Amino acid sequence: MPAIAPPFLQPGQRVAIVSTARKTTAAEIDFASRTLTDWGLEVVQGESIGAASHQFAGDDALRRRDFQRQLDDPSIRAILCARGGYGTARLVDELDFSRFAESPKWVAGFSDITVLNSHLLRLGYQSIHGVMPALYGQAGGEAAVASLRAALFGEPATYEAPAYPLNRPGTATGELVGGNLSLLHTITGTSSQASFAGRILFLEDLDEYLYHIDRMLLHLHRSGQLAGLAGLVVGHFSEMHDNAVPFGQNAYEIINYYAQRYQFPVGYHFPVGHEADNQALVVGRRATLTVSPTGSQLSC
């Protein structure tokens, strides 16, 4: 069955900003609140905004309660996760999606929010991998915010990437799945793992050692998760680290080392991930990836 798309937003509707991971102050989301208001939306701040428990936005119980409240409230038409960091996976097993299923709504975020993107797809619902409120005002991020608005309000999108030597030409059609490689690796074997089979996988990551990237790709390969892909979209792999003895490949070369064992098309350098130009992708939406000698295009 195709993943269910929640109703697209309309002016006048209510949206909630919560933090499922790292602590976030009201000041850090002020620009986002004003932006959302300019879109004609009413903004509700969850109790996790301004809460703190060490690095988290309140303890697990508070963050879970806040997210659950927004899931259950039918007047809230989208839940925007304020920032990433770490902590979302600590909440997901005790969340109840029964009321959400009666009135689905958009959940949006990226990085640590990959857990929710994947969990919702496993349950059969679309969500948005896109820029988070704490980052709406960053320099060079205007297109990312515009793409999030387009996704929330139901406008189609096409993204392009330049030609790259490791690209593998071809065309693939399938639902989008993916997000942060580290989180996809973390949730393998859990109730939040969504199947990659027949889908277009997109990947991004930040602040990892190159041998970690290899180890995670090796795991996806050995566990059979890459075998049934329709296509692969590779986004930002930012601020990578190496050891004193170099690993010998950059992140894209590591991905190619495993991708070349399969026949699906692969496009690199897409504007997705931990950089200002982080274009919104709807996880679970059917898309078409076209990779040619002149570059790559993803239409969704």
From TrEMBL:
Residues 15-130 form the LD-carboxypeptidase N-terminal domain. Belongs to the peptidase S66 family. It comes from the Bacteria. One of its GO terms (biological process) is proteolysis. Residues 173-289 form the LD-carboxypeptidase C-terminal domain. PANTHER family: MURAMOYLTETRAPEPTIDE CARBOXYPEPTIDASE, MUREIN TETRAPEPTIDE CARBOXYPEPTIDASE. The active site is at S111 (nucleophile), E204 (charge relay system), H274 (charge relay system). This is LD-carboxypeptidase. One of its GO terms (molecular function) is serine-type peptidase activity. The keyword Protease applies. Keywords: Carboxypeptidase, Hydrolase, Protease, Serine protease. SUPFAM superfamilies: Class I glutamine amidotransferase-like (SSF52317), LD-carboxypeptidase A C-terminal domain-like (SSF141986). It comes from Hymenobacter ginkgonis.
